[in-house]
Amino acid sequence: MRDSRGTHGCGADHYGRPVTVIATESLSKRYPRVTALDRLTVDVNPGVTGLVGANGAGKSTLIKILLGLSPATEGRARVLGLDVATDGAEIRGLVGYMPEHDCLPPDVSATEFVVHMARMSGLPPTAARERTADTLRHVGLYEERYRPMGGYSTGMKQRVKLAQALVHDPKLVLLDEPTNGLDPAGRDEMLGLIRRVHTDFGISVLVTSHLLGELERTSDHIVVIDGGKLLRASSTRDFTQETASLAVEVTDREQDLLVMLGAAGLTVQSSGHLLLVDMADEESYDLVRDAVAQLGVGLVRMEQRRHRIAELFTDDNPYGHPEDGPEGGPDDGPGDGPDSPAGDRAEEKSGTPAAPGTSQEGDGRDAA
Ligand SMILES: Nc1ncnc2c1ncn2[C@@H]1O[C@H](COP(=O)(O)OP(=O)(O)OP(=O)(O)O)[C@@H](O)[C@H]1O
Fold first, then answer.
1. From ligand 1's centre to the CA of 257, what distance in Å?
2. Which SUPFAM superfamilies match (predicted)?
3. Number of folded domains in the chain?
């Protein structure tokens, strides 16, 4: 992942292989009443990347452009080094796609459907059947795979959708809200499966969610968009590490310690019986230790904590960094402005059923 600087297109290693699986430059998509993507520039490296944004943020629009199914209004994008404007068919041969909404014919079995999709991707009959059996086993569908899909649970349907995205052995899969409609256990299983798509098969994954926290454990990188704009793109580790804090518990005199650490230049908050000290650098440990010794109180514990990603996006600080918001600051970001995608979405997308467990009028809170 790189930030918005740098050259366009996929960089290449010294063997000429692309080191970015997706590269967009100033990519925009404007509908008559909505700007779905707004000059989005981002690179996605191999691995698992979470694309996070509230309902209407532009995630599905980006995926459709990347697949060459929908033309961008302006800007450019490359997938596996191929130009989405001209190489759509080739891209679709190398990429698997799991759509957001229910799209499975109810009268056929998972096996019949996935074999069909494999054949559509160009696999010969025997290979299509073998790959289908392997893929359905991988996603955890066994005897049920011979039953008509109309009787499947949401979790089983999501697994079939994942299987058909994998059956032709793609290099990259684009998974649009794969945890939609799943209960917490189902979500965990799906996220585990997605992780294994990369670790077991080396396939890169771009997975979308409107729930910021849920991709934290699954993704190597996180891209956050809102109103079609890029808010943040970095490794998951960077997201959480940079705001690490030190939880300090002492036997007594917490308030005195708080004042003392503040005077030493540290940012400290009181949280119940704990003091949470922002970790500016390694020296923060020494300052805490010295202050505790000087007060002569007992140190019960001192532990470094990472923030959960979701904590970084609050109403007060929607962009993770005060100085890191999109141009114009938070007031230009998510909101109810005339161009607000979230606000217009239900009307613009009428006819498209809301996925289970999501709201048509997303207010950004889920992702925030
Ligand atoms: N075909 C279309 N015509 C007009 N507007 C559209 C169309 N498709 C999407 N939009 C609008 O573009 C914006 C972005 O939609 P998109 O589906 O990409 O968001 P999303 O982040 O995938 O959200 P969700 O997961 O809820 O679908 C929304 O305001 C939506 O209403």
1. 51
2. P-loop containing nucleoside triphosphate hydrolases
3. 2
pLDDT band at 283 (very low <50, low <70, confident <90, very high): confident
The residue to which tokens 């599905």 are assigned? 60
C-alpha to C-alpha distance for 297 and 27, rounded to whole angstroms: 57
What is the residue with the minimal CA distance to atom 30 of ligand 1?
A: 345
Please give the residue that has the higher pLDDT: either 352 or 25. Answer: 25
Decide which of 199, 215, 239 is a domain's last residue: 239
Give the three-class secondary structure for 184: helix
Is the predicted pLDDT of residue 238 greater than 70, yes or no? yes
Pairing relationship of beta strands 74-79 and 48-52 according to DSSP bridges: unpaired
Which residue's CA lies nearest to atom 25 of ligand 1? 55
pLDDT tens-digit map of 321-351: 333 333 333 333 333 333 332 333 333 333 2
Q: Which of 305, 320, 336 is the last residue of a domain?
A: 305
Phi, psi of 76 (to 5 degrees): -135, 160
* In a shared domain, residues 219 and 270: no
CATH of the domain at 101: 3.40.50.300
Residue 315 has pLDDT above 80, yes or no: no
